[in-house]
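Appendix B, Record 12. Input sequence as logged:
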Amino acid sequence: MKPNPMRPAIIDLHEKGFSATAISKRLAAPRSTVNLAILRYKELGTTADRPRKGKPATVSTPSLRKKVRKRLGRNTCRSVRQMAKQLNISRRTLGRIVKSELNLFPYKLTKAHYLNEKNKQARLKKVKVLLKRAAAGQHRTTLFTDEKLFTVQRAHNHQNDRQWLPKGSGKASDRETVSREQHPASVMVWAGICSSGKTPLVFIDQGVKINARLYQEQVLKSVLVPWALTHYGKKHWSLQQDWAPAHKAKTTMALCQRLFPDPWSMDIWPSSSPDLNPMDFSVWSILESKACATRHTTVESLKRTLQEAWDEITVEQVAAIVDHFPKRLKACISAKGGHFELEL
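Logged structural output:
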């Protein structure tokens, strides 16, 4: 523990005859701090700390701290345990140096989509244009779409999923495990939301390649066109989609221009931006938490549960999710096109 830096000033005023109350007011220090400093001075006759118990620390030298700082400066993901072995000191001592002396603390690595400087600059430019559209309320007339692969396996959130058990139950038989297998049965799902509703779910079975032709026939023509005619009628609306190969194909873009009033081009929607898409930052996680809380025995069971979870999402929910879109645009601008953290 570091010594109280106000101690010399307190004792100096005490020696000049000031009362504890007067000292507390003059130095804007808590009365308890002043009293403790005066009592310590009367007991020890000095403002120095009491002699520490035990053997003084001799391992944490300036040379060692400099060496540790340099190593962590070169690689912030170094293992403290491995570094302690290399430096021939205890794990506990090195941990104390890192936390107490260097003021460094461990943080979990986070997963995020890849962004290089070129992506960031292009993203920033397009996001500013999107924010102008959103300021005019155009995000409320936009249909946000996306696809996601769901498997029959139980969903597992490595960051948040926990099980409360008595201490020492780390290897207990009642501790839950989330099993994983190679190449589990799965289904690809396409869907879209806007502030006034949601499209039907489109299921594309495992093993079927989503190329431009399949996307155009089974998604755009068979599902989106009739839904849009019923939902929007003659109203103006915009279509957002990411730039997967099937979406950005020339034939797909030409079809969208012919069928829909305002399909966003690659000049509007930034690539590598799942964190901006309401389907990605909210809707898919809602479906996953509801439909994949337990393992499914068949793909048909998974489909039924996904459909039930989709039907439970209300218009009020999707409206709130879409209205969060401008906030994410602002957060992206603040991050200069880079990654950002923003909860819904």
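The longest strand covers residues 142-151.
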